[in-house]
Design a protein that fits this description.
Phosphorylase Kinase, domain 1, elongated, single chain, three-stranded antiparallel beta sheet, six-stranded antiparallel beta sheet, mainly alpha
């Protein structure tokens, strides 16, 4: 066969893939019915298919014929892949599947202790562009950390230059087979589609299109968790020119049955194409057939014509049984039809919008896809509130409804069209601000962070004549700027969103309540708990007055009220009740949500009540929720592991603490980079862990790294993280006897220590009081201790263990004045607190009593019991510092 050029192969490859997807007895018909402009490749395709068949008959993996022009990869004599073969660091186990150009193998590392199994993607041959294509897939997947997307673990090139990708090995069935095996109901199938929609929306928010959504690329695990696979032809929304060359369609890398009309026409696909493919998937999953079932068996040409011209019948008509047809008729017919609209502008603008309609359907609410007739809207209200609707209400609706809903329909259609147009203009303007016919592409490789920053600056000052488009951009860019460590911009966007919602919708609207809660993370990180509590309380009242049914909205409101309340005052049962209400709303929902965050707030509430074990158990539930919803390698899971690691140390589980904190930090660095502010907290936690283990030098090194991260310009606004680091630095200096470091650390505080969290205030006050006593500045020490007692009286009146460190320092103050008996009484009070979270303070108190010759038998018994607890919890290896204090060594 003559050598194919790179451009020739770009035309042949999608046709070859399409032919391979057919049964062998259908391939000849496929070749016979190729459009005239593609008949020139018939002989080449015929030879490739013959080579494929011969390779299969010979019992080894098929691969494309050797092609001239490809410089990367193996030569024409490459042997077939086989079980036991080594590829880079991997040993192949078994083939999981294959396409025209690549195989996927289950594999594991052939050496080392870490033996995670992966799905290894391997090209069959050195086809032109393969190395670039796998590099692109690697780069796209590296952006995506979501429970609904199979994760990328590694990528590389083997000794012969052949590229490979190591991905999560998903155990399960494709979504159609999974549902058929379980005879899944329509409602269960919709729940799975919502998981797919959430995963796609996440990918789109990271500027990644999938472009090959089909059942084979949607796996469902035994626990019902969806995993979206194969971003092999995915495309970045900000792709460089070289990416366009790799994936351009005249040359159309796609699965024909799931390709959108614009893809069939050879146009560049966008989010609307993923929405369309999702619609085909939904049609297949709900109706049991293809929307183009009549055309699909004929030929690819016939199928493409159907995609371009034929209106699919309602999905309910495809269902095999009457019950399913009834369940699909109406709302689901309309939702699927809107997703399958021929014109992109008539489809849902985002996957979020589509998912919102599916959720409205499940909740019995009116869906946006249905024509907004008064009869339909009224019927939905009556269905939800049938016992509250009387005959007089129906009569009024009948009289006034028709004109009002018709006008509303026209108004909504015009608004949606304007919104879509404004969004398009805004996005294209980021890349072509001067609206030139041939935009300048010299800066096409602009980093996503800078692009989002510029977009945020632009939206703050533009689109005021298109408020609906601006509203959505304020929401999306607010989230992105916060995740990228741009707190000032995120705050400006959140405040502007609130002002616009007030002006556009009023202060009793759902949009205004949403905007109030949109600032929750910013208030929390800045320690603005009073503002957060007031706004969350107002938002919850608005939702309740409107009869809000969306569980995620209600959960966020309860989460914010309970979480801010637990920080603003001594936690009470009402705070915990709000948080438990949030967990009950979120637990049944599919896909990633705020359930893990709810457990984080429960930790704070339980700690405020002094219930350390309940706090730890809540943290463990949070870690499990995040692992289930997001995966073990997600940054949110990692952050919860770090937090629970500190609780594990405070509940005398130091080995577990080390494992959780270190794994959490490893994942955070991998997914978020080396400077994300949350790493400062993790480094501070490691410092406490090393200090307990008797390694002050390592502890100080972790403090130094935590300070570096917290002091970066992008992180300074996150004051709580910075204060946590400084409090830890003071603890480490005091426990290691580094009085000079403690003096320098206390210098900025003076006599009035201010911190948003009461526990942080006490940590700083007690450490600086210890330094003042050591320096002989007893007046300053007394003032700091009095402030600490006032904080404890307000927030920890029922939690004596939180006062123990203040009693410890007060004993030191009393001893410095020669009041030995009073000092000993205070230290005995500390030693008598049977609380695992204060073992260091208890050990220090025992050491002071021994030095003061004030030990009695009761003190000795308490010390022996504490020593036994420390020995059982980890012994010298993990708890050397408190054990040394108890021994006097």
């Amino acid at each position: 066969m003559p050598a194919l050029s790179h451009d020739d192969w770009q035309a042949v490859e999608p046709l070859f893939d399409a032919a391979l997807a057919l049964a062998p007895d259908q391939r000849q018909h496929f070749l016979d019915t190729l459009p005239p402009e593609q008949q020139r490749w018939r002989a080449t395709l015929d030879r490739l298919l013959q080579a494929e068949a011969a390779a299969a008959d010979a019992g080894f993996l098929s691969r494309a014929a050797s092609l001239a022009g490809g410089t990367e990869g193996r030569g024409a004599g490459t042997p077939s892949w086989r079980a036991g073969q080594h590829v880079g660091p991997w040993a192949l186990i078994e083939e999981l599947g294959r396409g025209g150009m690549a195989s996927v193998w289950r594999a594991r590392p052939h050496s080392g202790d870490f033996q995670r199994e992966v799905a290894l993607k391997l090209p069959h041959s050195p086809a032109p562009g393969w190395l670039e294509r796998l590099k692109r897939e690697r780069d796209l997947l590296a952006r995506l950390q979501h429970a609904g997307i199979a994760r990328l673990y590694d990528a590389g090139v083997d000794a012969d230059g052949l590229p490979w990708l190591a991905m999560e090995c998903v155990q399960g069935r494709d979504i159609l087979a999974w549902c058929e095996a379980r005879h899944a109901s329509v409602r269960e199938r919709v729940a799975l589609l919502l998981q797919v929609a959430d995963a796609l929306q996440y990918a789109h928010s990271r500027l990644v299109l999938h472009r090959d959504i089909k059942p084979a690329n949607v796996m469902v695990q035994d626990d019902g968790q969806v995993r979206l696979l194969d971003f092999g032809i995915a495309r970045s929304l900000v792709a460089a020119e070289g990416d366009v060359a790799l994936t351009q369609l005249g040359q159309r890398p796609m699965t024909p049955e799931y390709a959108s009309p614009e893809q069939v026409r050879g146009e560049e696909p966008g989010i609307a194409s993923d929405v369309y493919a999702f619609g085909v998937l939904a049609y297949r999953l709900l109706g049991g057939a293809s929307p183009y079932a009549a055309a699909a068996p004929a030929s690819r040409h016939a199928l493409e014509r159907a995609v371009l011209e034929a209106e699919p019948p309602a999905v309910s008509t495809a269902a095999r049984d009457a019950a399913t047809r009834k369940a699909l008729r109406g709302d689901l017919d309309a939702i699927v039809a809107k997703a399958l609209a021929k014109e992109p502008a008539r489809r849902y603008a985002t996957m979020d919008a589509l998912a919102a309609d599916l959720r409205r359907h499940l909740a019995g609410e009116a869906v946006e896809a249905r024509p907004p007739s008064w009869r339909y809207r009224a019927g939905r209200v009556i269905a939800r509130h049938r016992w509250a609707v009387g005959a007089s209400t129906l009569a009024v609706l009948a009289l006034v409804g028709t004109t009002g809903w018709a006008l509303q329909a026209a108004r909504e259609a015009r608004q949606e069209a304007r919104r879509a147009g404004a969004m398009y203009e805004f996005l294209t303007g980021l890349f072509n601000p001067l609206r030139e016919a041939q935009p300048d592409t010299r800066n096409r490789d602009v980093p996503a962070r800078r692009l989002i920053e510029e977009g945020a600056q632009q939206v703050l000052g533009s689109l005021r004549d298109e408020p609906l488009a601006r509203e959505q951009l304020l929401v999306d860019l607010g989230t992105l700027t916060q995740q990228l460590g741009l707190p000032d911009l995120s705050r400006q966007l959140a405040e502007e969103r609130l002002h616009q919602a007030r002006d556009l919708h009023g202060t009793r609207s759902r949009a205004y309540a949403d905007a109030l809660l949109g600032q929750r993370d910013l208030w929390e990180s800045a320690g603005r708990y009073q503002e957060g509590f007031q706004a969350a309380t107002e938002a919850l009242a608005i939702y309740q007055a409107l009869g809000e049914l969306d569980p995620q909205r209600l959960a966020l409101a309860h989460l914010a009220v309970g979480g801010f309340g637990a920080r603003l005052h001594a936690p009470v049962s009402a705070d915990i009740a709000h948080l438990q209400a949030a967990s009950e709303l979120l637990a049944p929902l599919p896909g990633p949500n705020l359930l893990g965050t709810v457990y984080e707030q429960l930790i704070v509430a339980y700690l405020g009540q002094g219930d350390m074990e309940s706090a730890y158990q809540a943290g463990i539930r949070g870690v499990k929720a995040n692992r289930t919803q997001r995966g073990a390698e997600d940054w949110k899971t990692a952050a919860s592991e770090d937090q629970v690691g500190q609780l594990a140390l405070l509940t005398l589980r130091p080995a577990e603490a080390g494992s959780l904190i270190r794994h959490g930090l490893q994942v955070l660095r991998k997914t978020m980079g080396p400077d994300v502010v949350i790493l400062a907290r993790g480094e501070a936690n490691l410092a406490l862990l090393e200090m307990a283990a008797g390694a002050p030098d390592q502890a100080q090194a972790h403090v130094a790294e935590a300070r570096r991260i917290a002091s970066l310009p992008a992180n300074r606004a996150m004051t709580v993280f910075g204060l946590t680091v400084e409090a830890t630095a003071l603890d480490v200096a005091q426990q290691s006897g580094d009085w000079e470091a403690l003096r320098e650390g206390c210098r900025p505080w003076g006599l009035d220590v201010q911190a948003p969290q009461p526990a942080l205030r006490i940590r700083i006050q007690q450490a600086c009081a210890a330094q003042a006593v050591h320096a002989g500045d007893l007046g300053r020490a007394r003032a700091l201790l009095d402030q600490g007692q006032a904080v404890a009286d307000q927030f920890f009146a029922k939690v004596p263990a939180r006062r123990a460190v203040l009693w410890l320092r007060e004993g030191e103050w009393l001893a410095s004045q020669g009041r030995a008996e009073e000092a000993a009484a205070r230290w005995k009070q500390v030693l008598g607190q049977d609380d695992p979270s204060i073992v260091m303070f208890r050990a220090q108190a025992f050491s002071h009593l021994r030095e003061a010759h004030a030990l009695d038998e009761a003190c000795q018994a308490l010390a022996r019991r504490l020593m036994q607890q420390l020995q059982a919890a980890g012994g010298e290896k993990l708890l050397a510092t408190p054990m040394a204090l108890l021994r006097g060594g």
